[in-house]
Hints:
By secondary structure, the protein is an alpha/beta fold. It has nine helices and five strands, in the order βαβαααβαβαααβα.
Amino acid sequence: MFNIVIFGAPGSGKGTQSDKLIEEYGLYHISTGEVLRDHIARGTELGKIADSYISQGQLIPDDLMIKVLEHVLDNTPEAEKGVIFDGFPRTILQAKALKEMLSRHGSKVHAVVGLEVDDKELVDRLLKRGQMSGRSDDNLDTITRRLNVYHSQTSPLRDYYKEEGKYHAIPGSGEIDSIFSDIKTRLDAIKEDK
């Protein structure tokens, strides 16, 4: 099992690069955003709770997110080869909970791919995405709140994973294929050492 966390601010290209990683390595993609949006669209109890946080640009509680992920892992045979965690963890507590959860499954996080993009470019990307997709959370007020939450609560994860020797900073601006080539070079080296 080869597990990757794809890390970066909203709009940094996590989904785009995850698609390329799935194709290259045959990993199962768990996007917490997609899982939560699915629950919201279906009007499940979890969806209602999640929507009350997401619509305010806030993170949902850690214990709820862990339950969601464990349920996906336990009920998805395709995840046995390895997983790309997209949008999780977002806090150090979540990172520790992920470590414990993967340990119960006899595995670990092998690499954290950190897509680094400046805030001005992130805002521009998200506003364009909102215009194209119609996503209601891609408006300037919510984007600003999401970036503030990211910088205050999520970016400390960079140091946490650096201390574990798992964080790999990748410049997230420029050509998509060039960014992916940088990621692949790092991951291939890690897979060889695995």
